[in-house]
Amino acid sequence: MQEIIYQMVLAARFSEQFHKMDESGRKEAIQSVETAISSLRGSLVHTKRYMSLRYDSDLIIWASSGDPDPLLDLKTEISLGTGGYLHVTNVFLSLYEHSPYLAKGISLKETLTLEPLRYVIAYPMSKSPEWYQIAYEERKRIMAEHIGMAVSHPENKDIRSFTTYSYGLGDHEFLVLYETNSLEAWSHVAGKLREAEARKWIVSETPLIVGRYLPTFLDIR
Q1: Which DSSP state fits 102?
Q2: More confident residue, 4 or 59
Q3: What's the topology of domain 117-210?
Q4: Mind listing the pLDDT tens digit for each residue in 114-164?
Q5: Phi, psi at residue 173, to the nearest 5°?
Q6: Residue 2 in this model has a pLDDT that exceeds 90
Q7: Are 119 and 160 spatial neighbours (Cβ–Cβ below 8 Å)?
Q8: Which CATH code fits 5-96?
Q9: Can 5-96 and 117-210 be said to share one CATH topology?
Q10: CB distance 47 to 60 below 8 Å
Q11: Which stretches of the chain are DSSP H helices?
Q12: Looking at beta carbons, which pairs linking 162-165 to residues 24 or more positions away fall under 8 Å?
């Protein structure tokens, strides 16, 4: 049976009311976020929390499940169960499946439950209709060059990538998730991949979300 895991990356922003609170009130509001996440822990494959580096969000949650319903519950809890202190600004829903261009390795679930790295990048992307008219073997050749450039880059040693698919589920066709301990290394690798032939068929790759890992949101400083 094919292994499939649903993915959700959710970005949210604190309300103006939150910023007007004293320290005690802010801690209580942040605790409500943790309580909302913890209430669904048993139905999720994994949950990771991040402080957002984007201008339009403060927090990022990356969660996965074998079924989309727990992810819907998570979104609802964040929107409604946090006393109105958080407003969702972006949600990406996708399917994590084995790539048709790569041999299967360890299970998808195992890749999600590895020790977290310091940063996450959520990279939505779509390709032009012409890409899908190219014969599979030729697409495989083009993607082999792209993958080879990434893998062989000297700064790629600590970068993990997770290609997920959102055909018919979101505004983009793919959501590629990256974990890294170095944003400089990630930026250099991403820059090099602009030279790959596969770039000719990319038509959209925004909004890109970047966050720094937190064990819990209670660790916010």
Answers
A1: S
A2: 59
A3: Alpha-Beta Plaits (3.30.70)
A4: 999 999 999 999 999 999 999 999 999 999 999 999 999 999 988 999 999
A5: -85, -30
A6: no
A7: no
A8: 3.30.70.1030
A9: yes
A10: no
A11: 16-19, 23-38, 68-80, 108-112, 136-152, 183-193
A12: 162/7, 162/96, 162/111, 162/112, 163/99, 164/7, 164/94, 164/95, 164/96, 164/97, 165/94, 165/95, 165/96, 165/97
> What integer pLDDT is reported at residue 182 of this predicted model?
97
Please state, in angstroms and as integers, the Cα–Cα distance from residue 157 to each residue in 110, 186, 191, 211, following that order: 19, 10, 16, 20
| Best CA proximity match to 95, nearest among 4, 10, 170, 160 | 4
Residue 108, pLDDT > 90, answer: no
The structure tokens listed for 56 are 């339009």
Q: How is residue 103 written in tokens?
A: 């041999």
Q: What is the mean pLDDT of the chain?
A: 92
Asked if residue 9 lies in contact with residue 209, where contact means CB atoms within 8 angstroms, the answer is yes
Domain ranges of the chain: 5-96, 117-210
Four-residue CA torsion sign, 115, 99, 134, 128: negative
pLDDT at 42: 83
What is residue 106's three-state secondary structure? Answer: coil
pLDDT at position 41 is: 81
The Cα 76–Cα 114 span in angstroms is: 27
Q: CA 1 → CA 4, 97, 98, 142, 144, distances in Å?
A: 9, 12, 12, 28, 26
- d(Cα 217, Cα 197) in Å, to the nearest integer? 41
